[in-house]
Each structure stands twice: as C-alpha cells, then as structure tokens.
C-alpha cells in the first residue's frame, strides 16, 4: 500500500504555502468559500442605508472594518509563513472550525431576519424605531453580534493556528466592544427607561456571562 506523499512533507514546508495549511484540497476550498463568502455577505449587509434615519455611529463601522480586515491580513501573513500552526495531526480541528462558522452565520442571519428593517450596518435611529424583544432578542440585546463573533472565531479555529485565533480575539473585542459602547447609549437616549429595563432583563452577547 502506497503512503500518502503529503504526509511525508515536513511541517514547515507544508505550512509555507497558504493552500497547504489544510489537510486536503477540499478543506482548502471549503475554507476559501466560507471565509470570503462570509466577508462578501457581511459587506453587502452592513452597507445598508435607511431613509429617514439619524446616524449615531461615531466611526464604529470604520473601526469594525479596519480591525477585521487587519485580522485577515495578519492571518494570511501567519499562514503563509507557518507561524503558530499546530502539528498537522491536529488537522481535524479545521473541520470543527468550519462547523462553527456555519453555526455562527446561521445564528447571525436568523437574528438579522428577526430584527428586520431595524437592522443596519451603522448605529442609527430610524423613523418609528422600536425595541425588538422576540426570538433571540428575548435573551440577548445583540445576538447578530454573537453570531458574527462565533463565525469569525470559527474562521480562526479552522486555520489550525493559535496566533491567528489570538489575533481574531483581540480584533473582535476591539470592534464589537466599541460598537456596543456607541450603540447602547444611543438607544438609551432614544428609548430612556424602556431600554434601561430591557438591559436589566437581557445579556449583551453571551447568556449568563456578558
């Protein structure tokens, strides 16, 4: 029985090329489709514009875009140079990452669908704006962020690279953290005690934690 020649390639040699970070061609294709398909969908949805809306974003969208794209840039650099990669006998972790990406995107898009016309890519108050308290919003104030964070962490896990995971954790903390710092005061300004009471009844992004 012939041995798989890929298994005989040294870890450093395999990790020097981005496509060869993954155990086979199929997993490489899945990674690219999920990652860049996700980025395309995200860019499409976050640039939605609503008529009659009062913008209160204070640069949070810009911060989010810069930090996320920097994270992807660093990820590409790390993978092409083999920094932080786990040994290839752990390549099964990539498939766990793919599953996490799909789960995160599913939850994010479900949350966006529940929010409906009130979802926008920037922080703004729309005409007739109201607080949605159904579906995931019964428990979480920002479930679409929860889904986005899960999906991005899934991408990092799929790379099989611990430095990439750390970079994504920092980028997500900065981008989503700043967004919520801007968004919640804007909602308090608009809805007053109604939103303050909603804050007391719910968690931001992680049930029973935060």
UniProtKB/TrEMBL annotation:
Source organism superkingdom: Bacteria
Main subcellular localisation: membrane
Gene3D superfamilies per UniProt: 1.20.120.1630
Membrane association type: Multi-pass membrane protein
InterPro entries, sorted: ICMT_MeTrfase
UniProt KW keywords: Membrane, Transmembrane, Transmembrane helix
Protein's cellular compartments: Membrane
Membrane-spanning residues: 29-47, 59-78, 90-110
Protein's UniProt name: Isoprenylcysteine carboxylmethyltransferase family protein
